[in-house]
Write a structure and sequence with these properties.
alpha+beta; Protein Transport Mog1p, Chain A; globular; 171 residues
Length: 171
C-alpha cells in the first residue's frame, strides 16, 4: 500500500513540475512576441518620417480619413502582399505619432473565398501570437489582446459583393 501512495506522489510531483515548465515556456513565447514591435518593424508612437523610411514606396493620402479618436491616415501602402493576398495598409497617427495600422483587403472575392482567406489569416496570426483572446465565429471576428498591442481580425460582408477583411494593430 505504501508503494502505491509513494508512486502516486511521484507522479503528482512530475505533473506539477511539467506544468510549471510549460507555463514558463508559454510566458517566454509571449514575451518574445511582445518584443517584435507593433507591425512589420514599426513601433507604437513612431514618427511619420520613421514609417516612411521603413516603407519608402508608400503614399500620402490626399483625403485622409479620421477615426473617432482623432487618429488620421497620414501614410498608406497600396498593394501590400501578405500571405498571398493583396492589402492596402493605412498608418494612423495622433499628434504625428503612430497609433494604429490597418490592413484592408477589399471586395473582389466571393463570400466563400472570403471565409477561406479569413481562416488562413486567423491561423497565421494564431501561429505567431497564440490563441485569440476572444472571437465570434458567426460574425467572423477575432481579437488577440497582448501586453503591448491588440490585434483585431474581422471579415465584414453583406449579401452583396461588398466585402472587406481587415487586420488592425493598435495599442
Amino acid at each position: 500500500m505504501k508503494n502505491g501512495i509513494f508512486t502516486i506522489r511521484i507522479v503528482l510531483k512530475v505533473i506539477i513540475i511539467l506544468s510549471i515548465i510549460l507555463t514558463q515556456i508559454s510566458c517566454q513565447k509571449n514575451e518574445q512576441k511582445k518584443g517584435e514591435g507593433f507591425w512589420n518593424g514599426t513601433q507604437y508612437e513612431m514618427e511619420l518620417n520613421q514609417v516612411k523610411k521603413l516603407f519608402p514606396n508608400g503614399v500620402t493620402p490626399t483625403n485622409p480619413g479620421t477615426l473617432n479618436n482623432g487618429a488620421s491616415i497620414l501614410y498608406m501602402l497600396n498593394n501590400y502582399v501578405y500571405l498571398g493576398e493583396t492589402f492596402d495598409v493605412s498608418f494612423f497617427f495622433i499628434n504625428e505619432k503612430l497609433t494604429q495600422i490597418t490592413l484592408s483587403l477589399k471586395s473582389g472575392f466571393s463570400k466563400e473565398t472570403g471565409n477561406n482567406i479569413f481562416s488562413k489569416l486567423k491561423e497565421n496570426i494564431t501561429k505567431n501570437y497564440g490563441e485569440e483572446t476572444n472571437s465570434d465565429d458567426v460574425l467572423l471576428m477575432s481579437n488577440w489582446i497582448l501586453s503591448d498591442k491588440t490585434i483585431r481580425l474581422a471579415y465584414l460582408f453583406a449579401d452583396t459583393s461588398d466585402r472587406d477583411i481587415r487586420i488592425v494593430f493598435q495599442k
